[in-house]
Description:
Chain A is an alpha/beta fold.
Amino acid sequence: MKRQNSAPTMKDVAREAGVALGTVSKVVNGIPVGEAYRKKVEDAIEKLNYQVNSYAQGLKANKTCTVALLLPSTLNPFFAELAYYIDIALLKRKYRMLLCCTASDINAEQEYITMAQQNKVDGIIGLTYNPNLRIEESTPYVSIDRSLGPRIPCVASDNFAGGHLAAEKLADLGCKSVAFLRTGSSLSNEPNKRKAGFENGCLARHLNYELKIIDDGDPFQEFIDFLEMHYHKGRLDFDGLFCVNDELACRIIRVLQNMGLRVPEDVQVIGFDGAKGFGHGDYYCSTIVQPTAEIAEMCVELLLQGNMSVRPPLICLPVSYAAGGTTKDM
Amino acid sequence: MKRQNSAPTMKDVAREAGVALGTVSKVVNGIPVGEAYRKKVEDAIEKLNYQVNSYAQGLKANKTCTVALLLPSTLNPFFAELAYYIDIALLKRKYRMLLCCTASDINAEQEYITMAQQNKVDGIIGLTYNPNLRIEESTPYVSIDRSLGPRIPCVASDNFAGGHLAAEKLADLGCKSVAFLRTGSSLSNEPNKRKAGFENGCLARHLNYELKIIDDGDPFQEFIDFLEMHYHKGRLDFDGLFCVNDELACRIIRVLQNMGLRVPEDVQVIGFDGAKGFGHGDYYCSTIVQPTAEIAEMCVELLLQGNMSVRPPLICLPVSYAAGGTTKDM
DNA sequence: TTGTATGCGTTATCAT
DNA sequence: ATGATAACGCATACAA
């Protein structure tokens, strides 16, 4: 006796309704069927509280209506927002989301992809760091923030424009001498264009600028040293800082405060990402806002549109600036 | 011709290895098999890059190795942390996580549960608001923060103790007159015990206290009115506030600052949740910290332990206090 | 239009 | 110990 605790199947419905199995299937899938039959089947479905088993369906159709999202974690508010909006976008299309937190682990990334590769999911959206992921062409894949090759679409915000915008804002706000601070992955990715955009903007506005760039493993102390090196008699050489993301901006602001500097009075700081503490709350700092919802929507749209031929290799979505209390424009 | 883009199946492996289908299955599942056969099969698996189709497996075994997590959203850092740690806990047990953001929508909650009900997932962990969810007994379910009945385990932090702790801390920090501020759901849930614990603590420490409690739909303005009503000649009647969560605490702090009050000099504020902005960063405010990782681990353990008979109805995990700059103990 | 039969990839029960 | 075969729940081509 195994049938006891299990959900009712099509066969049960067919028996209950007194019709054939195929008829039930047709009703379930909206294929025209005699009115009287349809009624009987629907009643039986109602009575038994029947619902299709999507795994059996998937086995048959080779389609699971599930998409995997690979993310380092949801602890970072930007990633958390991404997860939220991607779930919304998928839901709209009747897809479910398998969330896979990779903890930026190279092997975990590959494992998840390999897992998904074998028709376990219909597609993958990944924000990954593994420089040499093996991705078979059979599984639709959309990458966020990192170009993985010409055949795999990459969606990102317009990081170059964002960097440029940051420089312009600092110039507008009266800065004369600024710096760009970056942690992150050294391997080429879209966010790294923030630097180039910023430099470009500084040049355009005749801002003096310096760069301090370290990699993820490097000690944070290097930033502190850098700032202290530019600190003379109670004054910092810079009146404006652009940090590669809001997280870094927050940490840097604390360092500045510990040095006795006031933000934004003495130094103005702009971050990047534009995540909000509680979804609808305040920004962590003045920031370049990524269009998270649009990125999410674009990823899903690209992933699920059947037309594999029109897959643009790189899509950059427009960013905007938002004051968040760490600049003088509040 | 349909076989082209699909993953290799056991049948392919069997043909490649020149053995029978059943033999391949045995090798895959670690069932003893002749050494020479095993080698052949393993080579074939390697060569074809074969991997079992877990949906077919699930169809057969009525088990999908997938758990659904129902959450209002991941925008709130506490929820985001929960999602992260639950994913980790599931991964440890070779389970995958389907993340379902319900946006606190009553119907979405029920829909997700109904979906999961039909052996689509092996279990559900839910943080929900629907007062009358229908949950069949067949699907293992663990609830967070809300008791859904005697047969469904509820995991929460010790909210009563947390409230008590907040009162004690405020007393220790020199407060004489305090208030408790709450938004949230009016229906009975675990977090609502924060109030009772706080009152209890205030009484124990002979603190004067007031309560201002509004429901989720109510206008935030009510808090502002409440505070202004207790604001006379540049002084607030309270020197300490306990907010039901960090989100509210942050908003209230801004209101206080707009009124010209300094935090923590004039008013000390304690929140609840203990989420950190970027996972490893700072707390948003002084706060009662929920043991998120432990809650996650407990939920998963409870959900997946086969023994349905030993299911405690309510588990409260210990909280702790953390200074976060909005009290005088930094 | 309705019913029947076959196959999806796997596991498990049988003979061999 | 190994190989053939049925069954899991569903969809569909085909027969009635």
